[in-house]
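Quick start: read one record
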Amino acid sequence: MADETKTIIATYVNGDEKRTLEAVSTSIFEGVEALQENVNEFLTVRIETLEDETPSDEEEEVQL
């Protein structure tokens, strides 16, 4: 009997922004581990994006 495939889904909601991350595996534990890697990668990209959007001191002085 073949192992059943399991799909694990996580949804990130921040205001109007909604992202869904998904992992598929025959093992629930491997699926959760893969999903955790996806979440960590997503959060890293999100943090980098937010850092890029934060004005530097020079930009703040120009805006004042």
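The chain has one domain: 6-63.
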